Amino acid sequence: MISLRICLLAAVLMALSVAVVNATPPGKDKLLSNSRDLNAPIDLKTDVDDATKKTVLVYYANETAPDVAEAKNYEKLLEWLGDSKNPTLKRIGESIHGDLEKFHKVVDQELATIKKHVAADSGGKSTSVAIFTNRLTRAGQFQVVEPGIDAVTVIPFAVPRLKGMVYSSNPLSHPVVFRLALAALTRQFDPEKYQFVLITKSHGSEVHVLTPRVGLDISDAEREPLLAQLEKDVANMPDSTIHAVLDP
User: Fold this and answer.
1) Structure pTM?
2) Which helix (H) or strand (E) holds 134?
């Protein structure tokens, strides 16, 4: 699991919401480093402190919280990995199971703390917080918490039907949905008046910031051929890659 903190100028945020940005984004080289430590977030751009604008904290959690279809996929995959006689595949299954149990709980705990802190700030020193999670997105909404207000504002957030079980269950992994989220933010918070700090919580890699923990749909797979292929794959993996899979 990764915590990635990204600070974005409002103008960049608005541009991303309406078009694909072809230019290399600031800090891209940092994404290619090996440091993906949960306790050491990566700052891609930090020169965004405009005293004339209010700040919105954007909490974007691509958490592991499968819907019904993906839950069945997880159940089958974990059963197969658990039955494997390959110790590496067994350990990968244990790692996946741990993430399945813990990731969404960590997100819920953090959001409870954030909401409590912001609601208790009657002096208005805290920032507004916009909350995106896979579960909220599947429900067609995101949430906003304002300083000193002990209530959550629910904002409609419609996304297109995504192809494939994995994207349907993890919509915040999809780049189209990410752009739609940024567009929704600029409608809710005028970029002329607000600046944005984006915090993502997601699995990822050295080249992809937002990925689900498991991207494999085994609905139509056969057990033995799949396990044989996975055993072949892990046998050819360098130790560093196996470590990344076991402790993403």
Assistant:
1) 0.79
2) helix 134-138
Fill in the amino acid letter for 74: Y
Largest CA-CA distance found in the chain, in angstroms, rounded: 62
Using DSSP's 3-state secondary structure scheme, residue 215 falls into: coil
pLDDT exceeds cutoff 60 at 112: yes
- What pLDDT shows up at residue 47? 53
Q: How far apart are CA 145 and CA 180, in angstroms?
A: 20
More confident residue, 149 or 38: 149
For residue 21, the model assigns a pLDDT of 30
Lay out the sheet containing 141-145: strands in order across.
Answer: 2-8, 194-202, 54-61, 128-133, 141-145, 152-156
Tell me the sheet residues that pair with 130: 58, 144
CA dist., res. 214 & res. 130, Å (int):
26
First to last CA, the chain: 6
Are 209 and 71 a contacting pair, CB within 8 Å?
Answer: no
**Residue in the structure block whose two tokens are 């004339």:** 52
Strands 194-202 and 2-8: antiparallel
Report residue 122 as tokens. Answer: 């009657």
Among 229, 203, 174, 213, which residue's Cα sits nearest to residue 70?
A: 213
For residues 129 and 125, which has the higher predicted lDDT (pLDDT)? 129
| 196 pLDDT above the threshold of 70 | yes
